[in-house]
TrEMBL record:
Belongs to the RRM MRD1 family. CDD domains: RRM1_MRD1, RRM3_MRD1, RRM6_RBM19_RRM5_MRD1. Keywords: Nucleus, Repeat, Ribonucleoprotein, RNA-binding, rRNA processing. InterPro entries: Mrd1_RRM3, Nucleotide-bd_a/b_plait_sf, RBD_domain_sf, RBM, RRM_dom. Residues 132-143, 524-535 have a biased composition (Polar residues). It is found in: Nucleus. The gene is MRD1. Residues 91-180, 195-249, 514-537 are annotated as: Disordered. It comes from Malassezia caprae. Residues 98-115, 229-245 have a biased composition (Basic and acidic residues). This is Multiple RNA-binding domain-containing protein 1.
Length: 783
């Protein structure tokens, strides 16, 4: 229970003072002092905390402590509808109903007068005391006046006058009620009224305390009073029943709930987990203020099943959430009812949208094949038909050429991300995802950063937009998480131009921290509008491509050397295209980058690069002697391999069934000299969907692994793994031992030691093990 009840508060205590007093033990979400209709405090209130742990700590700490001079008692508040609370209310109602309506009889006026006079005589100053009359005054005050004297004089005067009916009706009564001091005012008035109504000589009716006479008039009055009350209660019940039926109809139609009185610090994930106990939640939306970007304290919750929404409406209305009492109401459906039932295509699209936010979603660098072809053909200045055509002069198939083009584009994209301070390893080892950064994939070629920004700006503020030089995907950052979630739900699988957008939530801490003082920027590798000179790389040489091996590697740079200073030093050389200083993020100051002490310079031709290398090698820049050599770009991997190659052989999975051994040889042969390529087939001649590729050296195998691990061949993503032992081969016993360790537990291996172990394999594992065994048998037969 995250809500506490505090009793014994001072009457002058304010809400702000109570919040400040309890905020030392946690985050206070709600404070409510109970007051009477006239505004005075009832000296108790409620305090809500964000978590139950904070509430328990505050209860243990503040119970039986003091606020000023008032000792308070702190306990966990009861839930609305609690059995103990309901029983206590019934007990209070019963006591109130059983209490007598008549007031207790008054005390004698003489006794009050005597005590009051005695009090005045004792407390009066000595100068004002009548010392010679004190006893006389007290005796006079204690003397009881005789009421019969004035009462007996009036009938005598009335008897002397002539009697008349009018005089008889107004004559003073002779029942002695005026002299009876124990008679209450109400009873005295009742006697006087009955005497007047009786009139004439008719004696007044005497009411006796009997069941036959006293109960009849009371029952008649009770029936007259209870009849309107019963009708009113019946009308209230009918109205409540009608409202309940309307609420049930609304919830069963929409499956949505409207939740009010939420803490402003509550998130959509916390609210979703709070309602998940009643059923799967499809969507949770917390509206934000357009100006302050803060929560409005309300939310909409949509369930997959309307019956679960009805259960949540019954169970969560009045429940305590982070110290606040929730008010749950039915919400209408915003989506209009379709005129016709949804088609199979529409149902599949809705299912895809529902699964868009899950962890599994496409390849991390998925690109549209048509966009890749357009990018390469545009940048190389050749026709796309020539790139993908089947010319007789070229032996390479169009599928392999497209795969090689995609590999080139992926390498440029990875280089662009690395220069922006993005760690690509987080895309492969995703442990947690963030909601404020979105990867936009399957973009058509030619999409600008302004178009992407305008597409997402309809849902809120957009921070950074990064577009690699290939212009086939983008990274969008939205500072407000609620707006980013709304944009993700609305734009997932949305048609954009002649393509469909594929969205994926980026890993946590994917982008480096951005300086909040700087305005939002769009970083595009093609346009280069906001990219500084230190971020220039292959994307800057689209207009004048860098020749092969025409990039210089510059070492021993001063850490104070800026990209502008390096560009100024190489700018006068012939064929100079770009210069950059390699940087890394500063761990002490987020948003700042530090020089790594080396850089690169690109030239238009190899001869010009050789001339620049001779001139600049040994030159002094900012007090440091430069060491200039060729970078050998294209011979080394663009990024470090994830693991050292254990052998020269790799296993290629998810190979298209249409691919041939020639296609694999052409694709992998670009990255090194191949020793063998094997594509196992089934009995009827169809390929099995995997292959083995072996290189001559491990360095070439590592380079091919890092270059092709994100490549697609004929629409399938190639999955690369190392195969074989240290020498590139694996025996049958090694394969069996590897499979046994993977699918037999340690306890079973210890119990089955020396016996024949039973291996539990699924259909896929059996197929893979059989394929590996057959491939090994083929190797043995070839040998």
């Amino acid at each position: 229970m995250s809500r506490l009840i505090v009793k014994g508060l001072p009457s002058y205590l304010s809400d702000a003072r109570l919040r400040e007093h309890f905020s030392n033990k946690g985050h206070v979400t709600d404070v409510k002092l109970m007051r009477r209709p006239d505004g005075t405090s009832r000296r108790f209130g409620f305090v809500g905390f964000r978590t139950e742990e904070e509430a328990a700590a505050a209860c243990a700490y503040y119970d039986r402590t003091y606020i000023d001079t008032s000792r308070i008692s702190v306990a966990h508040a009861k839930r609305i509808g609690d059995d103990d609370l309901a029983a206590k209310k019934e007990h209070v109602r019963a006591r109130a109903k059983a209490a007598p309506e008549a007031k207790p009889p008054r005390t004698k006026a003489s006794e009050k007068s005597a005590s009051f006079e005695e009090f005045l005589s004792v407390m009066a100053p000595r100068t004002k005391r009548k010392t010679w009359q004190q006893n006389e005054d007290l005796d006079t005050a204690n003397t009881v006046a005789e009421p019969e004297a004035p009462q007996t004089k009036k009938p005598k005067r009335a008897a002397e006058a002539p009697a008349s009916p009018e005089a008889a009706s107004v004559a003073a009564p002779t029942d002695g009620a005026a002299a009876d001091e124990t008679l209450s005012d109400l009873e005295y008035m009742r006697r006087r009224m009955r005497h007047k109504v009786a009139g004439g000589d008719e004696p007044p009716k005497v009411f006796e305390q009997s069941d036959s006479e006293a109960s009849e008039p009371e029952d008649e009055d009770a029936d007259e009073n209870e009849a309107p009350d019963a009708e009113r209660r019946r009308a209230q019940l009918e109205e409540e029943q009608r409202r309940d039926e309307e609420n049930v109809d609304t919830i069963m139609e929409s499956g949505r709930l409207f939740v009010r009185n939420l803490p402003y610090s509550a998130t959509e994930d916390e609210l979703e987990s709070f309602f998940t106990s009643y059923g799967p939640v499809e969507q949770v939306h917390i509206p934000l203020d357009p100006q302050t970007k803060a929560s409005k304290g309300l939310a909409f919750v949509k369930f997959h099943d309307a019956a679960h929404a009805l259960l949540a409406f019954r169970g969560r209305d009045g429940a305590i959430f982070q110290g606040r009492l929730l008010h749950v109401l039915p919400a209408v459906s915003l989506a209009p009812k379709p005129a016709h039932p949804a088609t199979l295509k529409q149902k599949r699209l809705d299912a895809k949208k529902a699964q868009a936010g899950k962890d599994f979603n496409w390849s991390m660098l998925y690109m549209n094949s048509d966009a890749v072809a357009n990018s390469i053909s545009h940048r190389l200045g050749i026709d796309k038909a020539t790139l993908l055509g089947t010319d007789t002069d070229t032996q390479v198939s169009p599928a392999v050429r497209l795969a090689l083009a995609e590999t080139r584009v992926i390498q440029e994209t990875k280089q662009f991300f690395a220069e922006q301070g993005i760690e690509l390893d987080k895309l492969e080892r995703v442990t947690a995802r963030t909601d404020d950064t979105i990867l936009v994939k399957n973009l058509p070629y030619g999409t600008s950063g302004e178009e992407i920004r305008a597409l997402f700006a309809r849902f809120g503020d957009v921070g950074r937009v990064l577009i690699p030089p290939a212009n086939t995907l983008a990274v969008v950052e939205m500072p407000v998480v609620g707006e980013a979630r709304a944009a993700f739900r609305a734009l997932a699988y949305k048609r954009f131009r002649d393509s469909v957008l594929y969205l994926e939530k980026a890993p946590a801490s994917f982008l480096p921290p951005r300086d909040a003082s700087k305005p939002a920027e769009t970083i595009s590798g093609v346009q280069g509008k906001t990219v500084p000179d230190s971020s220039r790389s292959l994307r800057d040489v689209d207009a004048a491509p860098v020749a092969a091996d025409a990039t210089l590697y510059i070492k021993n740079l001063s850490f104070a050397t800026t990209p502008e200073r390096l560009t100024e030093a190489f700018h006068a050389l012939d064929g100079f295209l770009f210069a950059r200083v390699q940087t890394k993020p500063d761990p002490k100051q987020p948003g700042r980058r530090l020089s790594m002490g080396y850089g690169f310079a690109g030239f238009a031709s190899l001869a010009q690069a050789q001339e620049a290398q001779k001139k600049m090698d040994g030159d002094v820049l900012d007090g440091h002697t430069l060491s200039v050599s060729f970078a050998r770009r294209g011979h080394d991997a663009d990024d470090a391999p994830t693991e050292k190659a254990p052998s020269t052989k790799m296993l290629v999975k998810n190979v298209p069934f249409e691919a041939t051994k020639k296609d694999l040889r052409e694709l992998f042969g670009v990255h090194g000299q191949l020793k063998s390529v094997r594509l196992p087939k089934q009995v009827h001649g169809r390929t099995r969907g995997f292959a083995f590729v072996e290189f001559v050296s491990r360095r070439e195998a590592e380079h091919a692994m890092n270059a092709l691990r994100h490549t697609h061949l004929l629409g399938r993503h190639l999955v690369l793994e190392w195969a074989g032992g240290a020498d590139g081969t694996a025996s049958v016993d090694e394969l069996r031992d590897k499979t046994r360790k993977a699918y037999v537990s340690e306890a079973e291996r210890s119990t089955l030691m020396g016996q024949r172990a039973k291996i539990r394999l699924g259909a896929e594992q059996v197929a893979e093990a059989v394929a590996q065994q057959k491939a090994q048998d083929d190797d043995d037969s070839d040998t």
